[in-house]
């Protein structure tokens, strides 16, 4: 397994650092040509002990892009000798906290020694795997990592765990190794081996897809160094959708079916949500909607669904690949709490991550709450379909709304 190889390798690096050696986790050729591993990527290491600097085999400075604020809690995945955790502790201040997680006992010993030498008390180093973080859900404001996720042989689990431990609105900011563009697999493998990527790197497209599947939105991947043959260092940023206290927005699951359809029916019963009068079964619901771009708002204690949003394709023609129609519904007992706004905001961000350039919807003119919500989030009325259909025996108009992305297709 890659995990065992990684632990053995980094335990050896930690032992070397403990004896005073400088650790650089790439071969001499890579270090000479690229100069991007170790502490070269950091803006400011003032005040850190030499032990932390000696064991800094990263590929960037995730702390610089994590947007840390005083009083926040941050988790470093694969924290190694502790350099990122110590820098984070300095940024969050005495009222904040910085956790470091590492699978190597030797690295943890080194990190704790470095923290003691630095006189930093608002840190805690945990033993465990990044695929199963030993912390409760919704407990940190930021997750950082420095050239570690590429080492995992279960990257979807790592990203799912990062999403789980983050509070709503929390940030994901890591340095990592990725692959960009079509490359020869043999040359790619050689480049990955050269930079120490023993479990293989994700392509940019794979990274985006896995982050989206975990529930992250606002995904940005920025290249920082080129190691040749399509292998690059990059900063990967995303965030967990924001919503009010006690709630969370996550991807819709099949287990949510009953609650989703119940909320759907409650909306239809108002006679203001749709021309439909009876919610379909789950098979019908899923058949008519895209497999991605489906989210629910849930109570974090009970996992009770309090709202949902989903999208349908408007056409099978390729020219309309970036145009979707959406629906958003909130439990009748949970309205006027900002849930619909949070769901729609998350949906807009996720749609842009997916390359959607236009979101459209049809709303009854009498549904003023929905109209107000959509217009507040950038939708505009583009027309009225007059007396387009009969609903409970009465002819009704439908307002056509759309939101054109300012990011995609501009």
From TrEMBL:
Keywords: S-adenosyl-L-methionine, Transferase. It comes from the Bacteria. Pfam families: Acetyltransf_1, Methyltransf_31. It catalyses: arsenic triglutathione + 2 [thioredoxin]-dithiol + 2 S-adenosyl-L-methionine + H2O = dimethylarsinous acid + 2 [thioredoxin]-disulfide + 3 glutathione + 2 S-adenosyl-L-homocysteine + 2 H(+); arsenic triglutathione + [thioredoxin]-dithiol + S-adenosyl-L-methionine + 2 H2O = methylarsonous acid + [thioredoxin]-disulfide + 3 glutathione + S-adenosyl-L-homocysteine + H(+); arsenic triglutathione + 3 [thioredoxin]-dithiol + 3 S-adenosyl-L-methionine = trimethylarsine + 3 [thioredoxin]-disulfide + 3 glutathione + 3 S-adenosyl-L-homocysteine + 3 H(+). Residues 247-402 form the N-acetyltransferase domain. Belongs to the methyltransferase superfamily. Arsenite methyltransferase family. It comes from Nonomuraea recticatena. Its EC number is 2.1.1.137. It is an enzyme of class 2 (transferase). This is Arsenite methyltransferase. InterPro entries: Acyl_CoA_acyltransferase, Arsenite_MeTrfase-like, GNAT_dom, Methyltranfer_dom, SAM-dependent_MTases_sf.
């Amino acid at each position: 397994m890659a995990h065992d190889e990684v632990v053995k390798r980094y335990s050896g690096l930690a032992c070397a650092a403990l004896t005073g050696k400088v650790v650089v986790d790439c071969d001499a050729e890579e270090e000479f040509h690229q100069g991007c591993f170790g502490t070269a990527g950091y803006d400011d290491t003032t005040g850190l002990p030499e032990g932390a600097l000696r064991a800094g085999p990263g590929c960037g400075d995730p702390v610089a892009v994590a947007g840390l604020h005083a009083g926040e809690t941050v988790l470093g995945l694969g924290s190694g000798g502790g350099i990122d955790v110590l820098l984070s502790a300095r940024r969050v201040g005495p009222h904040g906290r910085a956790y470091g997680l590492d699978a190597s006992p030797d690295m943890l010993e080194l990190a704790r020694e470095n923290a003691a030498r630095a006189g930093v008390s608002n840190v805690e180093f945990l033993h465990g795997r990044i695929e199963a973080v030993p912390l409760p859900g919704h407990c940190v404001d930021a997750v950082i990592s420095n050239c570690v996720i590429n080492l995992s042989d279960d990257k979807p689990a790592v990203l799912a765990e990062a999403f789980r431990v983050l509070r709503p609105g929390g940030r994901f900011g890591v340095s990592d190794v990725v692959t960009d563009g079509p490359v020869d697999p043999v040359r790619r493998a050689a480049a990955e081996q050269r930079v120490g990527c023993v479990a293989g790197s994700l392509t940019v497209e794979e990274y985006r897809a896995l982050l989206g599947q975990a529930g992250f939105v606002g995904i940005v991947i920025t290249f920082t160094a080129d190691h040749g043959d399509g292998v690059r260092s990059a900063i990967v940023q995303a965030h967990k959708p924001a919503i009010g206290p006690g709630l969370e927005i996550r991807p819709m699951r099949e287990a949510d079916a009953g609650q989703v359809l119940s909320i759907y029916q409650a909306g239809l019963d108002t006679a203001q949500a749709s021309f439909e009068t009876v919610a379909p079964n789950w098979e019908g619901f899923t058949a008519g909607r895209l497999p991605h771009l489906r989210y629910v708002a849930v109570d974090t204690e009970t996992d009770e669904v309090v709202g949902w949003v989903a999208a349908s394709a408007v056409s099978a023609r390729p020219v309309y690949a970036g145009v979707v129609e959406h629906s958003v519904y909130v439990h009748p007992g949970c309205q006027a709490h900002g849930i619909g706004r949070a769901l729609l905001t998350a949906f807009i961000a996720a749609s842009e991550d997916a390359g959607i350039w236009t979101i459209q919807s049809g709303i009854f003119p009498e549904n003023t709450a929905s109209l107000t919500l959509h217009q507040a989030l950038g939708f505009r009325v583009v027309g009225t379909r007059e007396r387009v259909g009969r609903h409970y025996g009465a002819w009704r108009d439908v307002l056509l709304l759309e939101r054109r992305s300012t990011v995609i297709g501009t």
